Amino acid sequence: MIERTPILNIATHVILAFGLIVILVPIWLAFVAATHTLQAVNSAPVEFWPGDQLWVNLQQAWAQSDFGPKFVNTLIVSIGVVVGKITLACITAFALVFFNFRGRMLIFWMIFITLMLPLEVRIVPTYAVAANALTPFQTIMDWTGINWLIATLSGVEVKLEWNLLNSYTGLILPLVATATGTFLYRQFFLTIPDELVEAARMDGAGPLRFLWDVLIPLSKTNIAALATIMFVYAWNQYLWPLLVITDRANYGMVVVQLSDLVPDQLTTGGGTPTWHLAMAATLVVMLPPIAIVILMQRWFVRGLINTDK
Amino acid sequence: MRRAYFKFSWIAAALLAPQLLIIFVFFYWPSMQALYWAFTLEQPWGGGNTWVGFDNFTKVLSDPYYWGSVRVSVIYALATTVLAMTMALTLAIFVDRQLAGYRVWRVGIIWPYAVAAPAVGLAFQFVFNPGAGIFSYINTIAPGWWDLSKYPWQAVTAIVIAGAWKQVAYSFIFFLAALQSIPRSLTEAAAMDGARPLRRMVDLQLPLLTPTFFFLLVINITDSFTDSFGIVDTLTGGGPFRATDLMVYKIYTDGFRGFDYSGAAAQSIILMLLVMALTFVQFRYVERRVHYT
To answer: Which residues of A touch B101 (CB under 8 A)?
Structure first.
């Protein structure tokens, strides 16, 4: 603080408090709705203070949406995305930065371009690929005549098929296929001084040893930052799981369950909308990523700013 | 550039292979597939696709519903961006004064980033509901005046507010980081020249935020095109009368509900070009702007 500004300080707090209220109001109303009974939520005087039905509603919403297995699934997918993403990003960036070979920049740009088009934009064809992840290879082999060759030589017709619909792999892999983390890791590896690489080589360390014993311990903050961001990203996926998973009983994710809770004519059949349950479920679904962001705030902010998403 | 390299070996190839394979299968192939579909038409009784040139595009571009979708997408993009960035900038500038309780304010504004889009949509559907939320008050005064499922402008307002609510945290984090990277010596020099805090905000901090401002402008617009699906799906379902049928939502409904792959692919290509153009603008013009630090 450079000078004393009592009036401006009060104004600052007032403005911030106002902003915070604007941000909190919708979630507060949702929370309040989750603490009342069906009748109280749908009757004329709107409740602004929590009632005593929170636990009852949470239990009922939990049972109704079958959240138990859904949470396990979401956790599996989120951890899968986090681990897959960090591993891939780390080894790809390592190969790009510490090895000298022709076409290095070309490969870097090929990976970098994937940042431009988010999954939502190319959702229709990506879904088609997920139905059979080996289509690209099948098509290429058909075109190049390799399949014809194999068929005439051995009499076996090549039919490659790997269906990713309704599987964890299908949920995880397309979410991992972006350049977010690779870019972050590349930036970090570029700050490693040449002397460190030279010293490691002089001590007889090969590339893998150098990666494992020197770089990975150095990149702990990077890992924490990337893990936070990717966890939130994976947890909050909606469109992709909505399409890929039709067998929701076994592979459903929590966020997708929300689509069933929209109280309209379809779900209530003209009855009273069950807002208290919908809001209780909403709270349950959004709590884990919020907790992660608040607990890992430092790494989260750093990761967000360094990856530019 | 780096001087100390390892020699290229099978190790490097093995390290690169997984990433390249994965982006080939899940990024490059689908993107090419979209191009292929956009220029072909699937025969109704099998028999593969026939080449139709730009027919799919002319069909999409002459469809009034498509232009309605483009129109509401642009309105949504501009309105959410303006709302979210104004609010984020105001809050960031005041949080940056680092008064007592600074950390509490910061956390309080950051956490909405973690809320999933469909959860935002659902919560706001309750808030805006004519029968149960606070907006039911309006309907006790003027019955039937407020109903999202009847009046297009109200539905658009609702998704804009929900979308902006979700975007505030992201812009806030970037504005605050940019503000904190302003060298303290600059602030002190300005103070010594007699510039009071408000004067410093207008004449020192805001100009220094220009690069961040343009960066966020592009990112927010791009995000509003791609990240809006969850909000629309749970808040309005694209209605009433397709009033909130944003571009990604329309691709989804045409492709997966209407099974019109060629039409959806043509729309995807248009959206891809749009997003790529925005990214290009960002790299070409925005990143090049002066960085002061």
So the answer is: 13
- Domain of residue B130: give its range: 50-286
Can you list the positions of beta strands (E) in chain A? 99-100
State yes or no: pLDDT of A1 exceeds 70: no
Tell me the HSE value of A51 on the side-chain side, using a 13 A CA sphere. Answer: 19
Write down the pLDDT at residue B232. Answer: 87
In a domain, residue B170? The reply is yes
Distance from CA of A12 to the nearest CA of B (A): 6
Taking only the tens place, the pLDDT of each residue in B78-110 is 999 999 999 999 999 888 887 777 888 888 888
Here the CATH number for the domain that contains residue A184 is: 1.10.3720.10
Is B39 inside a domain boundary? no
Query: Token pair of B186, please?
Result: 């600059």
Please tell me the total count of domains within chain A: 1
Contact B125 A24 (CB under 8 A): no
User: What's this model's pTM, rounded to 2 decimal places?
Assistant: 0.87
Look at residue B4 in the predicted model and tell me its pLDDT: 60
**Which of A116, A264, A286 lies closest to B276 in CB terms?**
A116
| Ranges A39-43, A241-245, B240-244: which has the least confidence | A39-43
As given in the structure block, the two tokens for residue B153 are 């402008």
Average pLDDT, chain A: 82
Interchain pair A289, B115: CB under 8 A: yes
d(CA A230, CA A216): 18
Number of domains in chain B: 1
Question: Does residue A179 sit in helix, strand or coil?
Answer: coil
In a domain, B2, yes or no: no
Q: Which domain holds residue A135?
A: 67-307
> Residue A108: which of A182, A13, A23 has the closest Cα?
A182
Complex-level ipTM: 0.84
**Structure-block tokens of residue B124:** 């706001």
* Contact check, Cβ <8 Å, B118/A264: no
Which residues of chain B lie closer than 8 angstroms to A67, CB-CB?
Answer: none
Contact between B126 and A92 using a beta-carbon 8 Å cutoff: no
Residue in A22, A47, A112, A117 to test binding to B, most B beta-carbons within 10 Å = A117
Q: Specify if A35 maps to a domain.
A: no
